[in-house]
Amino acid sequence: MFRTAVLRSAAAATRAIRPAVQQSAPLARRSLVAPRSAFRTAAPKAISVRMYSSATGLNQQEVEGRIMALLQGFDKVNDPANIKPNAHFANDLGLDSLDTVEVVMAIEEEFSIEIPDKDADTIHSIDKAVEYIVSQPDAH
After folding, report:
1. Upper half-sphere CA count for residue 23 (Cβ side, 13 Å)
2. Which of 20, 61, 64, 99 holds its CA 20 to 30 A away from the CA of 5?
3. 66 and 119: one domain?
4. Where does the Carrier domain start and stop, copy by copy (predicted)?
C-alpha cells in the first residue's frame, strides 16, 4: 500500500515537471550541451613498467651467509665460533628443540616464506636450511 502511494506521487511529480522541461528543452540544449570537439583532448599515454626479480633466485652462498649471520645474532648459541656451514643446531650449537623452532621461524622471516611443519621438522642444521631455502622459488 505504501509502495503504491509512493509510485503514484512520483508519477504525478514527473507529469507535472514534464511540460515545463519540454518548453525549455531547446534553450537548455543550446546552452548546456557543448560540441563534441570541446571534449576531445589528447589521451594520456600509459607507460607500464614491469619489474622482475632475478631469474635464478637466491644462490647458495648468499643464503648460507644470511643464515649464519642470523645465528650470530641468536643469543642461545653456545659458541659463535661453532657456526659453520655444516653445523648441527643441537649437536654443534647447543640449541634445544624449542630453540630450533625459533631459528626456523627466524629463517621464515628472513626469507619471507612460510615453511610447513613437516618440512620444518627436517631442518636441523645450517646446510639443511640452506638446501631448503635455495629450493624455494618464492624465497627472497
Report:
1. 4
2. 20
3. yes
4. 61-137
Higher pLDDT, 11 or 19: 11
In a domain, 51, yes or no: no
Instruction: Decide if 92 is catalytic.
Output: no
Within a domain: 115: yes
Same domain, yes or no: 127 and 69: yes
Based on the structure, what is the number of domains in the chain? Answer: 2
The pLDDT tens digits of the residues spanning 127-139 come to 999 999 999 888 8
* Set 75, 79, 96, 127: catalytic member: 96
Dump the DSSP string for 78-117.
S-GGG--TT-BTTTTT---HHHHHHHHHHHHHHHT----H
pTM as predicted: 0.58
What is the share, in percent, of the chain residues with pLDDT greater than 90? 46
